[in-house]
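Why this split exists: single-chain examples teach little about how molecules sit against one another. For that reason, every record in the complexes split bundles all components of an assembly together and asks for one structure covering all of them. Below is a record exactly as it appears in the raw files.
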Amino acid sequence: MTSRQRSLSCGFLTIALALAAPFVVPALKVQLAILCIMIVLALTWDALGGQMGYNSFGNVLFFGIGMYASALVQVGLFHDVGAYTAASGTGTFEFSRAQYFVGLALGLWAAPFVAVAVASLLGAGLLGLRGHYFAIATLGLGIAGGEFAASWEYVGGASGFQLPLFPGDFDDRALSFYALALALAVVTFLVLRFLYAGRFGLVLNAIRDDEDKAEALGLYTVRHKVVAWCVVAFFVGCAGAIFGNLNGLIEPREVAFSGATFGVWMVLMAILGGKGTPWGPVLGAVVFYGMKELFWTYLFGWQRVALGILIVVIVLFFPAGILGSLRARRAPATTERRG
Amino acid sequence: MTNLLLFVEAPVLLIQVILDGVLVGALFALAAYGLALVWGVMNIINIVQGELVLLGGYVALTVVGAGLSPFMAIPIAAAVLFIVGWLLYRGVIFRVVEKDLFTSVLATFGLSILIAQLINQGFGADVRSIDSGLGTWLFFDGIVSVSQARVVAFVLALLIGAVLVIFLRVTRLGRAIRATAQNARAARALGVDTGQVYAWTYAINAAICGAAGALIVMIWVIQPFGGLLYTVRAFMIVIVAGLGNVVGVIGAALGLGAAETFVGFVFGTQFQAAFVFSLLVVILVARNVRLARQRRYLR
Amino acid sequence: MRIRVLLRAVLVAGVALSAPAAAKVEGSTIVLGAAVSITGKFSIDGQHTKNGYDLAVKRVNEQGGVKVGGKSYKIEVRYYDDESSNERAASLVERLIAQDGIKFILGPYSSPLTGAIAPVTEKYKIPMVEGNGASRSLFTKGYKYLFAVLSTSEQYLSSAVDLAAEKSREAGKDPSSLRLALAMGDDSFSLDVRAGILDAAKRYGMAVVIDDKVPDNFTDMSATLSRVKAVKPDVLLVSGHAMGAATATRQIAEAKVDVSVLAMTHCDSAQIAEKFGAAAEYTLCASQWAPTLAYSDKWFGSAGDYNALFMKAYGYEAPYQAAESSAAVLVFADALQRAGGFDQEKVRDALARTDLQTFYGPIKFDETGKNVVKPMMLYQVQDGDYKVVAPTKWATAKLIYPRPSWSKRGT
């Protein structure tokens, strides 16, 4: 099999599995939807960290922005947001079926654009930083976002933002959001694939391998970096909008701008699967999230010990990720160069 | 701002506010010394820093629980944490020490989750503290109050800083540490056992954290999941001070502490965190602009 | 090849995840579900909650369990650790219901977490009895399956304001001359407490001269305290869970801050009297319950008996967080017996009709699901002990007012 064929068969197999999954394990629909969100997070992190060599801890900013943007649209279309959050979504604020779905559609549509707008504002300044300084500066992004949202009473402040309730039973809700999340994951994968295959991907790799040389060759590194950053913001914003609705409550520090959970997990998943490989982040997300859920189910009280050990083991023993080490074993001569 | 008027009414309040800030800053400085060292020498951002501090606090709690005086607990905590640091290095850290910064951030993040949870299992989740048995000095009719325990911590912070500086300048190991920080490969070529240097550096860091924890548990209260606070603080202080700069650490810590308490006093505590973060961003940006200018000259 | 291995691993994991389908009733055991905070910022109070549940379950089982439709059942609780996170709590409760098949939920610790869980239990029409979500916003949403045994959070410190007003009137001073200082944590519980205080202050026409929101981790409040010393308010009110109570107690003593009334929440869960000794003296503590109250029931006997039993089992005095959690279990046991079956709707209706005397106090829900018959307590720390000083009916000691100034105390 050529690598293209293998990749294709891999893709079909995954899609088939993903479509069958909610019927094979119907009780796990919500977890499956979250898994798709995780895949999107890992894939987009890898676009910066793996392909471009810019290790970001700040992508979670767009996750939160997407969440709040969508929520603002969903509620703001029909009610006064300030009054809504002040009453924390009490009975007087009703959403009809049509209102809910129109709001949801527009919210999901608006969220990525808000995220991209913020990304383009921050991009040029942040991406001027290199190496450690970039990683450190992005570390603050999520925290800043959380503090900002927590002090903004209009969107509920520290008490959070309750989203409108899904009209319909829980099963339909879980299935709908799974479908949305799955579609997002597939689109993200394909778009990133497409970008990597062309000139754009080569420029990103050139930046990763040696930014000064890339610049010397006449490549517009800054422009490419900002565009890549905005693409990431787009998909992460979408993911945030879906997750916000799935979770039902947006809490600024722990759900929306959760640097210590989603912010770190996306990095770990990408690394676990294999940075800079197309399938690595997907595999990493599946394995990491699966293990995490197993820990939470079976290791009451000790699950964080297990998670801590898991993280250390991933970083120490799988620095090239699962796919990376498989590849290295298969072809020991061609070791991949990493940023 | 009506709160600013308070200073006009009672100028001594300014003394209180600045004093509070400086004393708070000294505690954070203790957590930051080691980070500056580890970051500068080993190029590791030690996310587990805060948990090492907490561990020091819990060792002190155990020691005091066994009937020893709180001040005996400080060296004991430092000694125990020295061993913990050494073991951590030999077990985990040595594998990430010359990899990129990112790897070490993740590895130490994993350790921080692990240790916080182990503390929780071992000592319980209660809020804990030790009574230092010291009182408070009052000045200006009781308007200005200074807790003696904080003064002890302040003096110790200065002392440990001074000892550290002298140690790095004078002793053989200190010089080896500095040589490794400047260029590990060259140091190795000249016969420095950098592995040993790293182990010492990390263990010394842990020991200082241990002492810090023992002091913090006498002044504040601790609980197993409060470690991140100290990591973040230490991190900010080191960013402001510059890597490996021990003298800078104490200056930055006291300065940040004073500025923060002042802002908290004048504008309300809800703006403290936001202020410190924005200050950090300003400092980072300013430094970046300066670096960019430098880069332009070089071209 | 490798893909097949991977596939198999994924499948095994999937099966393992969806496996534990414990039914609501297994043989002669009724399984209740709870997400509690064993780790994270609420872990102290979360542990009290779990201890409370466990003690009540043990007690009910020892006394023959629950009789439903002529048959005796034992109770059991299936726990998950929500890590004090809303997001975890909501998804774990969903797992309890959808995967583990549990039909009756006990609440988590804290209002934000209860708020995150309630939409889930509502959706599934699963009755939840909780003893630790006091925020009043929980009871304005028309939830039908949420029942809370405790007094809502805006009452926590407003009772202290009432008490201060009463005392100043006795001293011949107009209550509106009192000035309040607030140091409140930045979470929905404390914000509710604050709202209650502001309401009360408005009622009396008192001025709020300091209104600080203290950051999440609540380690140092020296900036606020310096301001308190400068502005000299009459009443200082603090709310920030156990961490806040411990921090405030220590630092107020250290800075020798003098006010007429100092009141806070969560002092008993932070064990301030035990841990800080003289520093904690004369502090007023808002509490849902006190071991000295004269309430009693058939399971535990009196409040004092409960406290003794708790002390024996866990080695510390029962904080109200544990007591209210135990009460939640008792409410379930009582409702299940009255419902005579395990139908969710029947149990819900039985819960709604609850009119129960417990060691924790009387329990009767209004149509929003909150307990409306149990009053809040105020303790004052006197001679290293928590003495009930309000309401007067239950008082075991007289309020010492104003707090003696630090310069007049021994230490």
